[in-house]
Design a protein that fits this description.
291 residues, alpha/beta, Rossmann fold, 2 domains, five-stranded parallel β-sheet, 8 helices, 15% strand
Length: 291
């Protein structure tokens, strides 16, 4: 089969990918082959058989109009460890009031004040995939109780309870983490109704900004200044037109920017290409869900 990247990789990475797949792989963004390993673009032709993303989320790809005979696969698990670490960093920084107390001490206000703990807190994960699994394992190390909402519910020793709905999860969670893919069904799913159910303190979003209704969230943060929105994503990024509320901690989509992780994600995608060739691809998605 004709296998190609639609983006540039180093010769070292290319050689490793050829070893993983056991076949020749080319870099050919203008005329990709039957099997395409993609980042943010692809080209469908009459002989296209597979579009394999290097990312777990596929909303950056315009998947409308892909013929039914073309298989599309996401790269579940790519960047999961780095992303779960970033989530915990945001949560710990907020619970321990790191930014606030750092600012005060820089202004020569050296005063002991109460901070919070993660121990015995309920962590609600909306979208329990590979990142969620990694996060749950870390959370258990902090003696947190993990609740999860997912379309599929698999036995997991780190999950205390699967919730029947997002509303129920938000109603009993101290901290909520959004890990859903952005699809036609999840766009704006965290809205005023969902927020009205939340009795906790922190909502974390490292998935996609548009899963959260912007108007509703900005109103919520203004109405409840004691609550926090911790995000690695923002609406219309990288252009930030909105005033960032003081109870929002925002990082510029860097949770997956760990040195070496990009290459590891590419290798993981190549492993699934090999599975596709053998007839057993994983993480096959329905493109219609993404438009």
């Amino acid at each position: 089969m004709d296998i190609s990247f639609t983006f540039n990789v180093t010769q070292e990475v290319l050689k490793k990918c050829q070893e993983i797949i056991g076949a020749d792989v080319k870099i050919n963004p203008d005329s990709p082959g039957e099997i395409q390993i993609v980042a943010n673009k692809y080209k469908v032709s009459d002989n296209t058989k597979l579009i394999q993303s290097i990312y777990a989320s596929l909303d950056a790809l315009n998947l409308k109009g892909i013929p039914k005979g073309v298989t599309v696969c996401k790269n579940a698990g790519a960047f999961s460890e780095a992303t779960s670490e970033h989530i915990l960093a945001l949560i710990l920084m907020t619970a321990k009031r790191i930014m606030e107390l750092n600012t005060k001490t820089h202004h020569r206000i050296f005063r002991k004040e109460a901070v919070d703990t993660l121990k015995n807190k309920k962590l609600g994960i909306i979208g329990y995939g590979e990142i969620g699994k990694s996060l749950a394992a870390h959370a258990k190390a902090f003696d947190m109780e993990v609740l999860a909402y997912s379309r599929t519910q698999k036995d997991d020793p780190n999950v205390s309870q699967y919730m029947a709905s997002i509303a129920k999860l938000m109603g009993i969670s101290d901290i909520v983490v959004i890990l859903l893919p952005l699809t036609s069904k999840t766009r704006g799913i965290i809205n005023a109704d969902a927020l009205s159910m939340f009795n906790g303190k922190m909502i974390v979003n490292v998935a996609r900004a548009d899963i959260v209704n912007k108007t509703d969230m900005l109103w919520y943060l203004k109405r409840f200044p004691e609550k926090f929105y911790l995000a690695d994503v923002w609406w219309n990024e990288p252009n930030i037109a909105d005033e960032i509320p003081p109870n929002c901690i925002l990082t510029p989509h860097v949770s997956d920017q760990v040195q070496g992780d990009f290459d590891r994600a590419v290798f993981k995608a190549c492993e699934n290409v090999k599975k596709f060739i053998s007839g057993t691809p994983e993480n096959v998605i329905d493109p219609a869900e993404y438009y």
